[in-house]
Amino acid sequence: MATPVKTAKQIYFVTQRWVRPHLASFHALQQPRLWLLAILLGLIGGALGIAFRLAIGFVQWIWLGTTSEQVLTTLSALPWWWPMIGPLAGGIVVGIILYFWRPLGRAGGVADVIEARVRESSTLTFRGATVATLVTAITLGSGGSGGREGPIVYYAAAASKLGFRIFRLPAAARRIALACGVAAAISSSFNAPIAGVLFAHEVILGHFAMSAFVPLVIASVVAAIISRLWFGEAPAFVIDPDAISISSYLEIPAFALLGLVCAAVAILFQTALIGGDWLSKRSDIPVWVRPAIGGLLVGLIALAFPHVLGVGYEATDMALAGSLDLWLMLALIVAKTVATTITLSSRAGGGVFSPCLYLGAMTGGAFGIIATSVFPDVASSVGLYALIGMGAVAAAVLGAPISTAVMIFELTGGFAFSIALLLAVGIATGLCQAVMGRSYFHWQLYTRGIMLEEGPHKHAAQFIRVRDFLRPLPEGEDTNFDIASGAPWLRPSETLESALKAFDASEVSRLPVIESKTNAIIGHAHHVDALASFNKALVAHSREEHS
């Protein structure tokens, strides 16, 4: 029988050999600080979600006299021309704000947060996020067509950036902290804590590392508690559970076909957004004038289809309830696509998630009316098809099938339709990816020269610079260099990709690095150092994804 002393020594030995290295790694990643910051970011995210929704409601109250999301009901009691007043007035105010306080000329969103995760030299600032959120609150509150998730995610990420600078976190922990802010914002805005965690993993971080899971959960749960204490625990869309159950497995082909239709709508919507942004960038109209023009155009659309105004949750609810006719829903697919494209391309604020839910509900609802009329004895309710359409279109546009599917469950409080939803989401996402090549967020990044879908090697080759691995010129060595000699050389600002191409072309082991202003040699770039920097970046990326 082992003595207590011997047992204590064995425990100490096991602790020193097995547990201590893991604890050292835990502290090296600054996990205790990160968990503490996650609590703080959860509190901030919950408060921001509440404040943002109240701000939208306040602007809407100025225009409509109500803070509820029943915009259509309120407008029905007002003069016929009233739907045009809100978007136009809001566009004018947004234009004034952009003129004085927003040099970039656009409100931030999810793509900007991903860019901040990729490179810390991004334009994500707390001041800029404050202005962007104000712009979006005015846009949505005055009837502009957009979603409320993009700006609140941007604002929460800016708060995260400020937080991890104060806590002095290492690079990997900073990226997780950025995602914590996003998880908290999504959780608070949609009352969907699980989807908040998955969205931050899937879209912002691009991986599901265990080191990120706990902080994201902490931030998301804290934000959800804050939000539920204020708004209550009811889901965003209240649906009769009996209306969203699958009637028969014979409907599976219909759900697959719905996925195909939703892919087509998602492709058209994404193409419209990209086209609108392309035209906006090439327009000579001053940035501060565009929101007013956009607001006027959206207001004109709203004269015929007031359903397109704002976030559009009342119209989405009507589609889920099956209270809209076929032709109206088909018309609203087009009208909402055009209205959202105009709003975002005019540089007013707004996200794309809520419009995706809207378009999906209309697509699924229209499909459901046709399905129930052709197969009345087999087809499920129109509301079920609308619900599945919501998830399919949103997942295809955002490129986030996992978090979107879970969010649909949390937004509605139902799980009975999971098989149908997953099938439609999978088909829609796959087809949209096949046609477009990337999600809408990644398209936005692609226009900025960031191609995440090509893998970490492409990212490393683009963002590592020659200055990061050059060897300074020893004292006393000649700094003169004749550029006209035809000998190969590099600039310190050139990318690793261009440096590796230069090494391959010249077949030398080192190249001189020339200062831009004086054309003098400031050091040498060695081929072996370039390859070492490349390998180091890839190893660090792999370690972060699997830690």
Quaternary structure type: single chain
Low-confidence stretches: none
Terminal residue distance? 40 Å
Overall body shape = globular
Q: How are strands sequenced across the largest beta sheet?
A: 1-3-2
Protein name: Chloride channel protein
Subcellular location: Membrane
InterPro entries: Cl-channel_core, ClC, ClC-type_chloride_channel
Main location: membrane
Give the helices and strands, then pairings.
Blueprint: H1 4-28, H2 31-64, H3 71-75, H4 82-101, H5 110-118, H6 126-141, H7 149-167, H8 171-190, H9 193-205, H10 210-231, H11 252-281, H12 290-304, H13 313-320, H14 326-345, H15 353-374, H16 382-398, H17 401-412, H18 418-436, H19 440-446, H20 456-463, E1 471-472, H21 496-506, E2 510-514, E3 521-526, H22 527-546
Antiparallel strand pairs: 1-3, 2-3
Word description of this protein:
InterPro entries: Cl-channel_core, ClC, ClC-type_chloride_channel. Keywords: Chloride, Chloride channel, Ion channel, Ion transport, Membrane, Transmembrane, Transmembrane helix, Transport. Its main location: membrane. It comes from Pelagibacterium flavum. It is a multi-pass membrane protein. Strand 2 (510-514) and strand 3 (521-526) form a beta hairpin. The protein contains 22 helices and three strands. With 547 residues, the protein is mostly helical. The longest helix is centred in the N-terminal third of the chain and has 34 residues, at 31-64. The chain has helices at residues 4-28, 31-64, 71-75, 82-101, 110-118, 126-141, 149-167, 171-190, 193-205, 210-231, 252-281, 290-304, 313-320, 326-345, 353-374, 382-398, 401-412, 418-436, 440-446, 456-463, 496-506, 527-546, and strands spanning 471-472, 510-514, 521-526. The model has no long low-confidence stretch (mean pLDDT 84). It starts with a helix and ends with a helix. Helix 2 packs parallel to helix 8. It has a three-stranded antiparallel sheet with strand order 1-3-2.
